[in-house]
Design a protein that fits this description.
Helices cover 62% and strands 7% of the residues. The protein is mainly α. It has one domain. The longest helix has 30 residues. 22% of the residues are buried.
Amino acid sequence: MHPPGYFRLLASLFYEALLLLALLFVATFLFVVFFGEATHPPLRYALQLYLWLISGLYLCWSWSRGRTLAMQAWNIRLVNANGELLSMGLALRRYLLATIGLVLGGIGFWWALLDREHRYLHDRLAGTRLIMENRSARR
């Protein structure tokens, strides 16, 4: 079990951002169809909360299964401290910690540049880790 390198982490993160952006475009479209224009409060805040919840559902569901689509493409797996799949509770904890890190200027992601195991700060705090997936184990 070894961590992915910086390039693989960055590539996976970029791919994940594109996939998440597409999901959020569809979610926003559905919100606007049902609730109308959301450019002013309180509807704007409702849309922001809705998108945060949609992101959380997608990511936590994927993480509890070991990987997102982007992680699968880059042969990365997410595991807990024992090398097992995350519980939904641990996935939610990771999501909340990652959200806080993003609000604080992305510090949770910048942390990986300094971490000897290339772990994000939210992974350190949640007790999770990204590892290279063993391709022979999948077959």
